[in-house]
Amino acid sequence: MTAYKNIKNFDQLIEAEHGKIGTETRNIYEEKSQMFIISEMLKEARKEAKITQEQLAEKTGTKKSYISRIENGKGNIQLSTLIRIFEVGLGKRIGLTFL
Q1: How far apart are CA 23 and CA 42, in angstroms?
Q2: Neighbours of 85 (CB within 10 A)
Q3: pLDDT value at 2 more than 80
Q4: CA-CA distance, 94 to 27, in Å (whole number)?
Q5: In this structure, how many other beta carbons lie within 10 angstroms of the beta carbon of residue 23?
Q6: Residue 92 and residue 95: Cα distance in Å, rounded?
Q7: For the domain 8-90, what is the CATH superfamily, name and number?
Q8: Where is the HTH cro/C1-type domain (predicted)?
């Protein structure tokens, strides 16, 4: 616990756990975090639309197994496919922010 006694905010905790911004370990953490967020947003939007993974796959020209992998944070996804899934399959708009 002494390693955390000087930590005063969340950013410092993330740096202590995963390294400084730009390091390989931090990049891996950031990538996995973003994939988790996308997977949760997809699950929530699909359930809100009351459709199955199979129905979503049919609407977007993908496979159920692909939708499942994304929802479980296991798959890589191209931006064009992500947009098609949300906009065509779920009727949602996607906004991107670059920081």
Answers
A1: 29
A2: 26
A3: no
A4: 23
A5: 12
A6: 10
A7: lambda repressor-like DNA-binding domains (1.10.260.40)
A8: 42-85
